[in-house]
Design a protein that fits this description.
The complex is a heterotrimer of chains A (153), B (321) and C (506). Chain A has 153 residues and is mainly α. Chain A has 6 helices and 2 strands; from the N terminus they run H-E-E-H-H-H-H-H. Chain A has 2 domains: 60 residues; 80 residues, no CATH class. A two-stranded antiparallel ribbon of chain A has the order 1-2. Classes of the chains: A mainly alpha (153), B alpha/beta (321), C mainly alpha (506).
Chain lengths: 153, 321, 506
């Protein structure tokens, strides 16, 4: 828990530094008609650095009690996280609907051990339903890939 | 007949039947580089609706708002879709002002010009409860004390501020320019007396005028608006003796290198939309200047307008430093 | 404003065709409300072209019904999955989701829908009888007043959370920083974009919320194993009637929420801050504030009442002034023009059948809406019975679709995943998420209003004191900021133990 606290606070401090850097470029003063563009970001950045510095000190003085995440907890978390990341990556290549079909099917089979019939039914019907709701009813275009191009959508 | 010729023949036959022009084969994405509810958004949705109502397009037209970075998001998105025949964009003056002020890597030359639909007017408005009945009286009041009157407008370093600076420089005045997020909000702040005057487009203030809450003092054009009650409003030249005029583009562009036959289809399509009674009624109600133009005429106008914006923004100190 | 006008309106609104249109609108709206990222504004914009062939009154009934549906629907995913379907449902997740995890999803949904209806009814009655008067009051609100309201929302909310105050501060700062990314409309300069096109549009509130609350919560809850907890709810309508028996207890929260919602709603962007403020007030005035955040029904009642009251109130400036009180109203306004109606002050005089038909349809639409969603409560609650391995990918895909739909941009789906991880880490390290979200939604609005005010006053802060309305609201806001400091001191003065609440904690 202590290490995670230190890492997070340090990261946020760096972020604060980036904000301050950008704000200085924009002008941090108080012009004739009120504050300039960088005035608020600058104060936010400085406050952020200060607050995180105190958090780092508090955390450093504290003994490392329990771990941020146990191995038993991390397993299931990653089992949700990495397929989700894969879904987004696949969406970029294959479009959302095809990626969603693979993702849903894979997840059902891998985690749920559902029968192939159920897997196929959900993996095909769910993206298809999404397609009709978004592309046809609500006319909201989603990212599409080679399959949709081939089908002339 | 060699194999190559045979293949070529097959390809020709497989391609679109001779004489049949290009038509959209999937939904058309209509990008609006501004938020929902504004003038550009209204016109885009009107075009989409008219196409639906009169069955002018075989595929639906889907309006997508990409307003980030004063429209930069929309322009850069369309710029990245080189050769795409199913994306078009409607532009307002931020076509010029956004790249000039923020320095984003974009110019209208990146896009394929399709058609100019209309030009939007600007009017100098004051609250109807103020004693100023002519532009002269109001300007005299502004002159009494430097920085004594507040001018409201949409955004910063965009058309409203350009126009305000033009007015200031022509008459040697100084307003306090207060930027708001959209034209409707600007006019309501005038009705609520939070600002003293605005340079709203006619349609943004029209209903408040009819209700007797605001008063138009002058039109920023070389001639009066020739429709309805708008005819009563003098031009800035008539009212103040200085020639300050400005019109805003409502035009349609396509992505870079849009295929020629697709451009032709959109030109014909937009002409049909333009000629519908619905569109003409909209132009009349909003006091928009009918100005349909395509091809070389359109390009020439845009070129001239770009030059104008460069000069105006340089004079106003609004160019990217 | 006469009763006879309203009567005329009802004759129009209850024609079979218009009732049918209302049912269609509410159904579509509820779906839109459930899907995060698809807001009422999208829904209305999408249906707008279809309305050109309808009579204007039926067209506006379709669009407003869709809007009521979206207002009702926003609560469903907030309660069941901790994913706010709409920005104004964020505060509903605070207690609605814990309730669902305790197996009381049905009760939470019933409370949410009923509160929405009460809030809506309150606003509609006010609009019916006082529309022109209220429009005049709305006009008095310029940038300084608007800023004062933002300040009040914020001050009512700070000091509510426990835990490390420094971490709350960091959370707020991060929200404000994210809100500042993109174009600064006051100067037209780009901030914190570092030349990246993807940063120019800034961070959308709804994307951040889907990630932080939705994805983050899934990650957190699976730590104890790959399943969802405490989701067995009764599958019949009895739960609705049982919950109704409890709800009258929260009469004061209903009234307070309605007032807050109506008052905030007639200014643009009001529903979301109103829901937060109403939640904060409910907690402050509650006899059991420690129960909030752990599954208190009142914590669902408060934000939903205010959100729906505000959503209805947003119609008022559209009808009377021709300015939109919300993005959805903005699109409807475009619709009015296309149908050939001139929105604004004269609409009441020139088209009474349209205006009063619309107002009457607000009553019928909301009655139909609440009956429809309540009838489906058991069905909604049963969604949680779907096996984990099917529900998880479906939720993740819906979240991705929602994030994409906001700007039609792929990068937003990546942001969603990143915000999900941030939400998980922050929650584990006790950084509160609510202040971050509130700062993100208010940051932009508040900074703009403040700087517009300062331009108006040429840099003088006195503008917030000298204008009466702004002065009063600012004073109340400051009072709320110092209240947490003053309260212990005041108690000691009266000889009351400083922290009596700790003793009552269960």
């Amino acid at each position: 828990m202590r290490t995670a606290d230190l890492v997070t606070a340090s990261f946020l401090m760096v972020l604060g530094g980036v904000v301050v850097f950008d704000a200085v470029g924009l002008g941090i003063g108080w012009g004739t008609d009120g504050p300039k563009s960088g005035f608020f970001p600058f104060s936010l950045g400085v406050l952020m650095i200060a607050a995180c510095a105190v958090i780092v000190m508090q955390a450093a003085r504290r003994a490392a009690a329990r771990p941020f995440v146990t191995r038993a907890q991390l397993g299931p978390v990653l089992k949700v996280l990495w397929p989700a990341v894969a879904l987004v990556a696949l969406t970029q290549w294959l479009g959302l609907y095809v990626a969603a079909a693979f993702y849903t099917g894979f997840y059902m089979r891998w985690i749920g051990r559902h029968s192939w019939l159920a897997v196929l039914a959900v993996a095909i019907l769910f993206p298809l339903a999404t397609f009709f709701v978004f592309e046809k009813w609500f006319l909201v275009p989603m990212p599409k890939g080679p399959l949709e191009a081939w089908l002339g959508q | 007949m060699g194999l190559k010729t045979a293949l070529a023949l097959v390809l020709v036959l497989a391609a679109a039947p001779a004489g049949a022009a290009w038509e959209p084969t999937k939904p058309i994405e209509f990008v609006v580089p501004a938020g929902t509810g504004g003038g550009a958004d209204q016109m885009a949705r009107l075009i989409s609706g008219i196409a639906e109502k009169h069955k002018l397009s075989p595929r639906p037209i889907i309006v997508v708002n990409k307003s980030g970075g004063a429209g930069a998001e929309g322009f850069l998105d369309v710029k990245s879709k080189k050769g795409d025949a199913h994306t078009i964009i409607i532009t307002l003056s931020n076509l010029f002002t956004t790249p000039l002020h923020t320095g984003i890597p974009f110019s209208w030359r990146d896009l394929t010009p399709i058609a100019r639909m209309a030009l939007d007017q600007f009017i100098l408005w004051v609250n109807a409860e103020t004693p100023y009945t002519t532009a002269k009286e109001y300007i005299a009041a502004v002159n009494e004390k430097p920085l004594g009157k507040k001018m409201g407008g949409t955004g910063s370093a965009q058309e409203d501020q350009i126009l305000t600076i033009q007015l200031e420089q022509a008459l040697g005045l100084k307003f306090i320019y207060v930027p708001f997020k959209g034209g409707g909000e600007v006019c309501v702040n005038l009705v609520g007396k939070h600002v003293d005057s605005t340079v709203n487009n006619p349609i943004e203030c029209a209903s408040h005028w009819k209700a007797g809450r605001v008063r138009p003092l002058a039109v920023f054009d070389t001639a009066r608006i020739p429709v309805g009650e708008w005819k009563e409003i003098p031009t800035v030249k008539e009212a103040l003796g200085v020639d300050v005029h400005y019109l805003m583009l409502r035009g349609i562009f396509g992505p870079p290198d849009m295929p020629k036959d697709a451009v032709d289809w959109y030109v014909a399509f937009l002409k049909k939309v333009y000629d519908t009674p619905d569109f003409q009624k909209y132009l009349g109600e909003g006091a928009l200047k009918p100005a349909f133009a395509t091809g070389a005429e359109y390009v020439k106008w845009v070129e001239g307008n770009e030059q104008l914006h460069k000069e105006l923004m340089a004079k106003g100190g609004l160019l990217k430093k | 404003m006469g009763i006879e006008n309203l009567f005329l309106g009802f004759q129009i609104a209850i024609s079979p065709y218009n009732l049918f249109v209302a049912v269609i609108g509410i159904t579509l709206g509820t779906i839109i409300g459930v899907l995060p990222g698809l807001g009422g504004a999208n829904g209305v914009a999408i249906l707008l072209p279809l309305t050109f062939t309808m009579p204007p009154t039926s067209a506006i009934i379709l669009l407003t019904s869709l809007y009521w549906g979206a207002l009702f629907g926003g609560a469903i995913t907030s309660i069941l999955f901790n994913i706010p379907g709409e920005p104004w449902s964020v505060a509903t997740t605070f207690d609605g989701y814990p309730l669902a995890r305790q197996g009381m999803g049905g009760q939470a949904l019933t409370a949410a829908f009923t509160s929405s209806f009460v809030g809506a009814l309150f606003s509609i009655v006010l609009i019916t009888f006082f529309a022109p008067l209220l429009a005049e009051i709305a006009l008095k609100f310029g940038p300084p007043e608007f800023f004062a309201i933002q300040l009040l929302t914020f001050s009512s909310f700070v000091g509510l959370g426990g835990g490390n105050p420094l971490k709350s501060l960091v959370s707020i700062l991060l929200g404000f920083i994210l809100a500042a990314v993109g174009l600064d409309i006051v100067t037209g300069q780009l901030r914190m974009t570092f030349g990246f096109v993807d940063l120019m549009k800034g961070f959308d509130f709804i994307v951040a919320v889907i990630g932080l609350f939705g994805v983050g919560e899934i990650l957190l809850s699976v730590e104890e194993g790959l399943s969802f907890k405490g989701v067995r709810t009764g599958m019949n309508l009895k739960v609705v009637f049982d919950t109704w028996r409890i709800l009258p207890r929260y009469a004061r929260t209903f009234v307070r929420g309605s007032f807050i919602g109506f008052w905030m709603g007639f200014k643009p962007g009001g529903a979301t801050p109103a829901s937060f403020m109403s939640y904060a007030f409910a907690k402050r005035f509650s006899r059991n504030p420690e129960r909030f955040g752990k599954g208190e029904l009142e914590g669902v009642v408060a934000p939903e009442t205010a959100a729906h009251a505000a959503g209805v109130a947003a119609m008022l400036p559209m009808l009377t002034l021709g300015i939109p009180g919300s993005p959805t109203a903005a699109v409807m306004l475009g619709g009015l023009i296309i149908w050939g109606l001139q929105p604004g002050p004269l609409l009441f005089k020139e088209k009474p059948d349209f205006v009063w038909g619309l107002i009457a349809s607000m009553y019928t639409g909301n009655v139909i809406g609440v009956l429809m969603v309540l009838a489906f409560v058991p069905f909604f609650a049963a969604i949680l019975r779907i096996p984990f391995a099917i529900l998880t990918p479906v939720i993740v895909v819906v979240c991705a679709v929602g994030s994409y739909a906001v700007h039609n941009s792929m990068i937003d789906i990546w942001y969603m995943v990143i915000f999900g991880v941030v939400g998980y880490v922050f929650k584990k390290l006790d950084y509160p998420l609510a202040p971050l979200v509130l700062a993100l939604v208010l940051g932009d609005l508040a900074e703009n209003a403040l700087r517009q005010s300062l331009i108006m006053s040429q840099g003088s802060l006195a503008i917030f004191v000298t204008r009466p309305i702004a002065g009063v609201i600012s004073a109340v806001a400051v009072l709320f900021f110092v209240l947490p400091v003053l309260t212990p001191w005041w108690r000691r003065l009266r000889g009351v133990p400083a922290i009596p609440r700790a003793t009552r904690e269960i």
